[in-house]
Design brief:
Oligomer: heterodimer
Number of domains of chain A: 2
Number of strands of chain B: 10
Number of domains of chain B: 3
Bound molecules: S-adenosylmethionine
Distance between the termini of chain A: 43 Å
Shape of chain B: globular
Strand content of chain B: 15-25%
CATH topology of the largest domain in chain A: Rossmann fold
CATH superfamily of the largest domain in chain B: Vaccinia Virus protein VP39
Largest interface: A-B, 82 and 80 residues
Radius of gyration of chain A: 26 Å
Strand order of the largest sheet of chain A: 11-10-9-8-12-13-16-14-15
Helix content of chain B: 25-40%
CATH topology of the largest domain in chain B: Rossmann fold
Helix content of chain A: 25-40%
Mean pLDDT of chain B: 85
Low-confidence stretches of chain A: 10-20, 92-96, 99-104, 285-345
Distance between the termini of chain B: 54 Å
Strand order of the largest sheet of chain B: 5-4-3-6-7-10-8-9
Largest sheet of chain A: 9 strands, mixed
CATH class of the largest domain in chain A: Alpha Beta
Shape of chain A: elongated
């Protein structure tokens, strides 16, 4: 197939879906990740007419971000009616300024021996700056004024001058980068801001889980996701509206998967995200009629109450506007009116109860793979129940923050001859600063990304 | 139940774990047909192997190394960081042994496509053959082309969601990559040496942002059951004898005291590991208004 034909087909099917699978421009109601001042602050938000981002002590409307390409850069400007976001050409400025440690080694013309930092160097006062802002003077102009009024600026090394300029720019002309919420950026954001919520699952561990469990289109992936939906969402993203991802649980209540709402999933993808209890999955085919009931009830609720989110039992996912990344760094709630407008459009909710048809299919064929991420549970107690639900030769990957439960689980799998290719690994990831004559690993790194036990289920020996 | 098809026997055979086939005797392939995946099958000598369904991970372990290849840690990270999902169009060069290509294909399936280029004609042909055997030929197109010299073909301009480079001088291909990518599209370049990274990053700065370089590795752990004797039960003589005996610590010390401890599961990192594969540099095409 030629590339043009392929692309044509792709865009045609996108139009049919009416919601592109992989959109690169924002739309009203879409979820975005806002990167403020080069990662200093990260916030998820939904773009609506009424939504706003709090910058300093002022509300900055997000409406102007609707219809912009992901990757666009904005700067906060001071308008007569308060701050607003104005599009600026993106640049790699600031990239050159990564850590303070090496400044001395590079700048040979000047050094900072004469620099006395006594807070007296700046002659422009806060009151004067506020006045400039009120007059609508742009942030960049304020930064310029600060530099002009700094007694020590000229004495600084060029590296320190740049640092000073950047610091002032972040304060008086903050920049907002518009990002796509993808498994990658969502995982990185939570890992940075609220790692506990995703069980300290680092991005490289998540990547390995998806590979080791051979997640691909048309697979039926069984998961135990106690990471608030991070894992379920990442799997669903790889399924792209095919196959299914089933989050299984013990007892009656499914696990919350509110992170799934941050992804911009199409209805087709949402449909593929379901939950089922272990007892429902384990019941043999004949009994499956009974398991129809709760599902019908759920459908009934949905039909009779179109504009209410169908809340499957206590999967009480708060609307994503309330998701807090960190206590200080929450995304602002929108005005209730725009929220009302938005909800009915979301007809399909992710995380419905699995239908009896699909459960029968799973019983017949087995799941194609298993991923477990339950940071506070005993791994073996889960694996021994779920492995029988997989098809033969199905790969599985178990994430844990401790090695002992994985080691015990591995031992048991070996003794019971349930799996081969068993391996416990710990991923390691290091980021580098790459700059002319200043290349080295980052001074700070994450020292731990969890452990993973992986393997392949085998056919019980008797059956040979 | 899944069945092994006769036509795919060869590739399946290659995917079977537990080492060299010849060591375990001769296996009759007809015996395998109709068996479920995950079955244990025996040779005439009583040796055994498992029949496994192929995955890109297994493929990476068994493929014939015509070049250096990428392994699971780098591969999984690349697929995640390049944000490859079903339907994506991905460009790659060089194809090499096709280790990464197989995982790229898995990620773009069922509606996307991987266009991979190598200037080595034989390697491209072998890779093409492999993809046919593994049934991925509808997702992968292998082209012969000097990507450093000529760049990617013009027909892909503005159509690639992501591009991956594993080339000796990746910076020579970067301006072409910028042309190929959709807006906000991502490039990844894999280089074993830091000088290559340095050079690539300098070139990337002209039209890419968000330039980040990573190194990812894995540490494997050994798990075993071990009796950790209480100090009072062990004297110098039993320490000496234990070190000569392999693995199984004696249940009795030489002073005749019975061991009171149950074996416990212990874990330690393997003594050796792959210490370096390469640096992964990612960047996003700058978004111009
Ligand atoms: C290290 S291998 C790639 C391995 C591959 N990533 C894998 O996982 O199997 C590098 C390949 O790049 C190819 N290559 C080198 N220079 C090239 C060029 N200018 N254009 C296209 N391919 C090139 C080589 O022939 C070689 O097969």
């Amino acid at each position: 197939m030629s590339i043009n034909k392929h692309i044509e087909q792709q865009s045609k099917s996108n139009q049919e879906n009416n919601n592109a699978q992989n959109p690169r421009v924002t739309w009203e109601g879409c979820s975005v990740l806002l990167d403020i001042n080069d990662g200093d602050r990260l916030a998820f938000a939904r773009l609506t007419i009424g939504s706003a981002l709090k910058i300093g002590n002022k509300q900055c409307p997000l409406q102007s971000l609707i219809g912009c390409a992901f990757g666009s850069l904005f700067q906060v400007e001071n308008g007569k009616e308060g701050p607003f976001l104005s599009r600026i050409p993106s640049n790699s400025e600031g990239n050159d300024l990564q850590d303070q440690g090496d400044s001395q080694t590079v700048d040979v013309s000047k050094d900072n021996r004469a620099l006395v930092d006594n807070n007296m160097a700046q002659s422009l006062t806060e009151v004067e700056i506020e006045e400039l802002k009120r007059q609508g003077v742009s942030g960049s102009e304020i930064v310029g004024a600060l530099i002009a009024n700094s007694a020590t600026f000229d004495k600084k090394t060029s590296f320190s001058q740049e640092k000073y300029r950047l610091k002032k720019q972040k304060k008086y002309a903050p920049r907002v980068l518009l990002r796509r919420p993808f498994a990658r950026s969502i995982c990185e954001t939570y890992f940075k801001k609220n790692p506990e919520k995703i069980g300290w699952l680092r991005i490289d561990s998540l990547s390995l889980l998806l590979s080791m469990a051979n997640v691909t289109a048309n697979s039926d992936v069984l998961v135990v996701d106690l990471l608030g939906g991070m894992l379920t969402g990442a799997v669903a993203e790889r399924l792209g509206g095919t196959g299914s991802v089933c989050n299984t649980h013990h007892g009656v209540s499914p696990y919350p998967i509110d992170i799934v709402r941050i992804f911009n999933f199409t209805d087709e993808i949402c449909k593929r995200i379901v939950h089922a209890s272990l007892s429902d999955l384990s019941v043999s085919g004949e009994h499956s009629v009974e398991s129809n009931q709760p599902e019908d009830l759920c459908n009934a609720t949905k039909q009779s109450n179109e504009d209410v989110v169908c809340d499957t039992s206590n999967d009480h996912s708060n609307s994503m506007e309330e998701i807090r990344i960190t206590p200080e760094d929450e995304v602002l709630p929108e005005k209730p009116t725009s929220q009302d407008k938005q909800q009915p459009r979301k007809a399909v909710q992710a995380g419905q109860k699995a239908t009896s048809e699909i459960m029968n299919l799973w019983r017949e064929n087995g799941f194609s793979s298993l991923i477990v991420a339950a940071p506070n549970l005993d791994a073996w107690s889960i694996v021994k129940e779920l492995l029988p639900l997989l098809s033969f030769s199905a790969p599985f990957a178990i994430y844990h923050q401790h090695s002992e439960p994985l080691a015990a689980c591995m031992r048991n799998l070996q003794h019971e001859k349930m799996a081969i290719g068993l391996q416990i690994i710990e991923p390691y990831m290091r980021e580098y600063q790459v700059l002319p004559s200043r290349t080295h690993p980052h001074m700070q790194m994450s020292a731990f990304g969890g452990y993973i036990l992986s393997g392949i289920k085998i056919c019980p020996f008797e059956k040979n | 139940m899944l069945f092994i098809e006769q036509s795919k026997k060869l590739s399946f055979k290659k995917c079977i774990s537990d080492g060299d086939l010849n060591r375990f005797g001769a296996f009759k392939h007809v015996d395998w047909i109709g068996k479920p995946f995950g079955s244990k099958v025996f040779s005439h000598k009583g040796g055994f192997i498992y029949l496994l369904a192929p995955t890109p991970e297994l493929w990476t372990l068994v493929l014939s190394h015509r070049t250096q290849i990428l392994y699971i840690a780098d591969i999984s990270f690349v697929v995640m960081y390049l944000e490859i999902v079903p339907g994506c169009v991905v460009l790659e060069s060089g194809t090499g042994s096709g280790s990464l290509t197989t995982s790229l294909a898995r990620a773009v399936a069922p509606s996307g496509h991987v266009y991979t280029f190598d200037f080595h004609e034989q390697r491209a042909a072998s890779a093409r053959e492999d993809f046919e055997k593994t049934g991925l030929n509808n997702l992968i197109t292998v082209g012969v082309r000097d990507i450093q010299g000529e760049g990617f073909p013009e027909e892909f301009s503005g159509k690639a969601d992501s591009v991956f480079l594993d080339l000796p001088q990746p910076w020579l291909a970067i301006s072409s990559v910028a042309k190929m990518l959709k807006q906000d599209g991502i490039i990844c370049s894999f280089s074993p040496c830091i000088e290559q990274v340095q050079h690539s990053c300098e070139t990337l700065r002209s039209c890419f942002t968000d330039i980040r370089t990573f190194e990812v590795l894995l540490r494997a752990f050994e798990v075993r059951e071990k009796k950790l004797e209480s100090w009072e039960n062990v004297d110098g003589c039993s320490v000496g004898s234990a070190s000569r005996k392999r693995r199984q610590p004696s249940a009795e010390g030489c002073n005749g005291v019975e061991s009171s401890v149950a074996p416990s599961v212990v874990v330690r990192p393997a003594s050796e590991a792959r210490g370096h594969t390469g640096y992964l540099t990612f960047a996003r095409l700058q978004c111009l208004t």
